[in-house]
């Protein structure tokens, strides 16, 4: 019997808006409202509101070194300044990515770890097993999360919540009162646009959703638009582009690995650096409006060299774009490729990421 998808606190709002709903990471999530292309455009031009309550949140309180947290991730927790966050990985012994995540430094001895929905239970267990002390708590059920993204997001947030939001720099956050409760407002996101992630007690998240949607500059957007937005700026999606058998080095994400500290999986990555990777991430642009799909084959001439992990039609570029993995080699920009699957065939060229760099992210 198939397990029923979990509803976020805003589920009834999505249904009232006639959203197309579907399971995602074990949750019942809105895929689109008026349409993926329209919602994508609204985010790139104005401000889009996303229900991200499905993400997992954990709290750790204690000494980071003696409690073992410092050795859990591929980055240093103790060097994150209070009020800042850092992106990186939780790895297995083989160097594979259990999850990609962000750690928020709330106080000298306290952090919040934000993880992906589908992996949250496994992440919590994996982290807990590596800890030697401190208090580690899963607060996912008590935490609501909304993302507002787009060039007008700052103006909307200031109008709704006050001027202090305007001063938050990129990858910093503040704790503030929203609707009579303590909330975290962070200048982070997954779209390449100026935006904020808001963490608020679950019982208040519907009220905040309603408040932000009162502004005519804001419209709701679903996971369909979010996927197009994130791929246009080259962000990886867990479960598609990265997973437990993919290392950060293979995924082109070695910049988020600090080899000057200890972490689980370090020995495997050092060995991989020494012997070399056997496959690598590759980005490509299709010569038509056709969308490459997950698992489509990547060919160089008549030889298959890899497979697509993510692909969409990019409204900003007016063509199909994608990333995937290919056998290790030299693929200069402009290298000709063919993307194939059964009777489908499309010409493509190797390109750089981000595919689209014109967003308001750091505005």
Describe this structure in words.
With 363 residues, this protein is of the alpha+beta class. The strands form four sheets. The chain has a six-stranded mixed β-sheet with strand order 11-12-13-10-4-14. A six-stranded antiparallel β-barrel has the order 15-18-17-16-19-20. It has helices at 11-16, 36-45, 120-130, 153-161, 205-213, 223-232, 266-275; strands spanning 6-7, 20-24, 27-32, 47-51, 56-61, 85-91, 97-107, 110-115, 135-138, 143-149, 173-178, 181-186, 195-201, 218-220, 279-286, 297-300, 303-314, 319-327, 336-341, 344-350. It is built from seven helices and 20 strands. Helix content is 18%, strand content 35%. Among the domains are: 6-54 and 141-232, Gyrase A, domain 2, CATH 3.30.1360.120; 278-350, Elongation Factor Tu (Ef-tu), domain 3, CATH 2.40.30. Helix 2 (36-45) crosses helix 6. The protein starts with 5 loop residues before the first strand and ends in a 13-residue tail after the last strand. The chain is globular, with a radius of gyration of 21 Å. Strand 17 and strand 18 (319-327) form a beta hairpin.
């Amino acid at each position: 019997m198939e397990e029923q998808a979990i509803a976020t606190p805003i589920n009834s709002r999505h249904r009232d808006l006639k959203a197309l709903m579907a399971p995602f990471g074990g949750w019942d999530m809105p895929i689109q409202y008026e349409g993926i292309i329209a919602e994508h455009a609204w985010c790139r031009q104005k401000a889009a509101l996303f229900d991200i309550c499905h993400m997992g949140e954990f709290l750790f309180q204690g000494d980071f070194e003696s409690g073992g947290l410092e050795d859990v991730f591929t980055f240093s927790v103790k060097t994150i300044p209070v009020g800042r966050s850092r992106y990186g990985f939780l790895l297995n012994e083989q160097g594979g990515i259990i999850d990609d995540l962000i750690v928020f430094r709330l106080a000298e001895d306290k952090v919040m770890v934000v993880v992906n929905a589908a992996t949250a239970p496994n992440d919590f267990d994996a982290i807990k097993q590596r800890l030697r002390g401190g208090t580690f708590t899963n607060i996912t059920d008590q935490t609501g999360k909304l993302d507002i993204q787009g060039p007008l997001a700052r103006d909307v947030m200031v109008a709704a919540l006050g001027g202090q939001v305007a001063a938050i720099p990129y990858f910093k956050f503040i704790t503030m009162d929203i609707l009579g409760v303590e909330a975290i407002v962070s200048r982070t996101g997954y779209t390449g646009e100026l935006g904020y992630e808001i963490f608020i007690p679950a019982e208040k998240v519907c009220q905040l959703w309603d408040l932000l949607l009162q502004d005519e500059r804001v419209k709701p957007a679903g996971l369909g638009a979010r996927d197009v937005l994130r791929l246009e700026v080259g962000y990886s999606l867990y479960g598609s582009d990265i997973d437990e058998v993919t290392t950060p080095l293979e995924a082109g994400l070695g910049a988020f690995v600090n080899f000057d500290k200890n972490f689980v999986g370090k020995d495997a990555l050092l060995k991989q650096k020494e012997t070399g990777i056997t496959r690598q991430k590759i980005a490509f642009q299709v010569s038509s409006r056709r969308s490459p799909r997950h698992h489509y084959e990547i060919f160089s001439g008549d030889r298959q060299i890899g497979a697509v992990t993510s692909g969409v039609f990019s409204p900003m570029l007016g063509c199909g774009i994608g990333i995937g993995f290919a056998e290790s080699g030299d693929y200069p920009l402009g290298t000709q490729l063919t993307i194939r699957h059964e009777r489908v065939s499309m010409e493509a060229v190797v390109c750089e990421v981000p595919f689209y760099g014109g967003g308001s992210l750091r505005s």
